[in-house]
Amino acid sequence: MSLRAVKGMKDILPDEISKWHRLETAFRQRVERYGFREVRFPIVEPTALFVRSIGETTDIVEKEMYTFTDRGEKSLTLRPEGTASAVRAYVQHSIQAKEPVTKWYYLGPMYRRERPAKGRYRQFYQAGIEVFGDPGPYVDAEVIDMVVGFISSLGITDVEVLVGSIGGPRTRERYRDALLTYLAPHRAELCSDCQRRMDANPLRVLDCKVPRCAEIAAEAPSMLQYLTDDDRAHFEGLQEALTLLGTPYRVEGSLVRGLDYYTRTLFEVLGKGEGLGAQNALLGGGRYDQMVESLGGPDTPAIGFAMGLERLLMAMPDEGAGSHVDVFIVAAQPEVRAQAALLGRELRDAGLRVESDLRGGSLKSQLRRADKMNARIAMILGESEVEQGVVQLKDLREQTQEQVPRPQAADRARALLQT
Ligand code: HAM
To answer: Does ligand 1 lie within 6 Å of residue 197's CB atom?
Structure first.
């Protein structure tokens, strides 16, 4: 049997990659405008990092991690997300001693053994940011405004921005009691996982995908009613700032996220367009003011989000047929193939993207390849052109041809490419 990629993990072939590049470049440009700098973490981390930060009773930790023992010694896990690694690195390198506020961004693959579906993979790519050292709420609003603007700049216009607050530890304690009181009479109707969750971590019941559990969760009291005064003031500050920035949002009192580390601000952006299907969360994020300290660092507030790149790509409008080639060089006779290679180098040195078929072949078949690659220009080089120091420059879109002195070929090509 032929070998295939692991279920839920896909190849990204060159035909798809220009859309990825466009997305990644746009992301970098956008966040760098806000002062974020790139950080890269290992793909593998100690398992304990995710267990302690994401939470023992979350689906990710209970069911979805790719965990293995490293040659019988250490338990390691393929990272299911980036925030835990960011915090680990922030603490490990004592970044707080170097700057009061740290703004990091990252891009890369994450691994979760979920049931594969449209928009849900076992290896997927995230682009995310994390801000350390600012308690908010204004930075919370700025980060949400930044990502909403980014998504709209990609041409994704049909979105819904949900914001909520889960409060701090005191709010959570009050809410937990209220939730347990509400859930108690429904206990027998809940799935066995949720019955267990009621004892271990009742908030996780709100995130259960089993239909009856979701129905019960939908009627649960809203977290927002239980916010302490400080948590409420924070949430109101966030909303005022979002309103001032003109960022559209909807308050969602029952917003729950699949990770345990959040405090106060939570947010998600859902794509409403057709391309997405059921997996319509384009991004999720929130504040995690206790994670740095709980992983051994100083008391440091933090907020961030991560976007699923596959989902953004599905929601982005198509860009039309692009090309990875500006100029295709055609060698009119086999004898000029070395000269064609030299011309290729001259043009590449001048910054053009150049292809040729140095195997030779008829003029016609070489021009066909140029067309197939969607090259805008063909440069034809024969023995007489080499002798005279010129090339025949053919504009394949306009179907015009001109003879150009070789030293000016690159400039002329660039001028044409701009039209
Ligand atoms: P998350 O909500 O688990 O948050 O994931 C963020 C985004 O990653 C989702 O909204 C979705 O677009 C994408 N995603 C998640 N799982 C999959 C999957 N199996 N296949 C395809 N896409 C997926 C986090 O990961 C947090 N670290 C976000 C964060 C950063 N919070 C604070 N800072």
So the answer is: no
